[in-house]
């Protein structure tokens, strides 16, 4: 929360009162440089509006979203389209969840979509923004206030799409948008006028808040007299240039590195620009001597996908600087991986961790339980190769690969040890209960699964890096692929496929699923081929390696799911190589409910894969590939029906213009357009009605032609021919695989499930 006594001035400003009291929708853009208190003011406003836990419900007051800056990357990720879709969905989910917490009456829209789409609703931006719009429209309050902070941390395309959707909400009802960010052209261009802009750089009220913060921090110094404190306060205020983050960093360095009498000389050496201060901090870190490698440790925290617990940080710290390289030998299928036993690592205590954080020159921040990087702007400095005093900066992708491999090995060590302990306990139980009827020895996988359900905290206490390793090894691996792909499999020690994780048996994977935090990974339970595992994880170098090694297992299925079914649900580039190198029958394989890969792509919203399949079928001479675009499943649904049901209007339009027949009825007697009307899919219904009309007109035109006439009618008797085929440039990619919900739903059910969804967003797209 903001410092006591700060930020209150904003409520007295005329521009704020006008924004709040307007009878129309209005957008207020509060902008300023990095670290100038924008987020602090946003939090102050949120605290002013939101109800306290003991207050009576009075309807919706404010919904908010604090955007996380995009993680550092050397190049554009192959999963960018999927990441963009999830981020847009997360904003809508945060706002919708905030509304439902304050007023459960708009729950009906959520319930309808949950019954129609199941868990896929939570990652479908099109549906989430529609339901959010309906919830805002139905809110009993006169105005709905929405606060969005940090959009400047998003790339230009994502920023433009998000602002466009936010502006769309203002047309639904009386919606007041409070936007706080840096002043950047990508934001002003996306807003397109009609807003109030306030720049708080060098604002007098901000300066007074800054003085309050400085006084509070410096007066807490022990061992300083009043004169020294007053002098330090004056110098800090003069050099701060209205930047709260600069003050925070300067005060921390002053407190831990300078005795009171020397404050003047120390502060005079501090640069007044935030970027220059980061560079000085970097030089100071490099000049330190100690047993640990401080700068690599700081970069490891900066690269982490979330704040690290003390246990996780302590493990990394203890391992830094130690030679833990293990010579991993290749094995034959079924043979155990043989590794040299790692040296015992002595974990650091909380006191040692806090001292280490202090030595980071304020790059690291410690709370009561976690360690993180002080601010996302510090990451830019730590990986900036243009800084002269930043020699031998490693590539972020190479570091991601290193972290991924360390997590992967740790995961095997931890699970192996836990299984060994479970085996031992199982043997003791069997001995003690040998006379009981019906007793049977537990398999290691059963025993460890029980530990995963009831004793995960105990397991993490023994293996403190286990949870982060499970959550993050494959995410770090995916982030490394763009720059370090050539190193992913070529480095001999990194023999990923020889480890138990990729075995047919799920002995290791079953335990991992319980810790990874991603409900989608349940698909990896049970027996799997290496290729199925690699496809689900989106690790393209491993997919290609299996295929190039001659292990063409492309026709095998897993729980009625072919490789292309999995590729549709776990978007990556895997679909490309599978379509190109897989057998022709793979393209038409039928899974659960006789859904083909094309059906699955329509369900998941995997637009790129769907387009690739349609193009492949159009060029194929294989008779089995003809008519796939209109193939029906066990319910009589075509891919067009499913694209409507799961609310992907871009896919509906593409299919309608590329050969899909909108007049086909499913076993309920419904055309896709009828299904759209029933489900409230106005955009898809409009597209399909136009297609049906064009098709009918084309048929009438054909009927009027003379029998002996020579007229080119090619394609006119299809929706594609009638409407004219068009190429689409972009589309959504989708995730999710759970069944559609059929039981009774309550607001509390949704809010409880929200914890799992929120965790998934944090870990997977943070």
Largest sheet composition: 5 strands, parallel
Assigned CATH class of the domain at 8-202: Alpha Beta
Cα end-to-end separation:
22 Å
CATH superfamily heading of the domain at 8-202:
P-loop containing nucleotide triphosphate hydrolases
What does this structure look like?
By secondary structure, this protein is mainly α. Among the domains are: 8-202, P-loop containing nucleotide triphosphate hydrolases (Rossmann fold, 3-Layer(aba) Sandwich), CATH 3.40.50; 205-270; 294-393, no CATH class. It has 33 helices and 8 strands. The protein has a 5-stranded parallel sheet, with helices on both faces. Helix 6 (156-169) links the parallel strand 3 and strand 4 (175-181). Helix 3 (80-102) runs parallel beside helix 5 (125-138) and helix 20 (466-488) crosses helix 21 (507-516). The two termini are 22 Å apart.
Outline of this structure?
With 766 residues, the protein is mainly alpha-helical.
Question: What descriptive keywords fit this protein?
Answer:
disordered C terminus; 33 helices; 3-stranded antiparallel β-sheet; P-loop_NTPase; ANK repeat; Ankyrin_rpt-contain_sf; mainly alpha; 5-stranded parallel β-sheet; globular; Rossmann fold; repeat; 766 residues; 52% helix
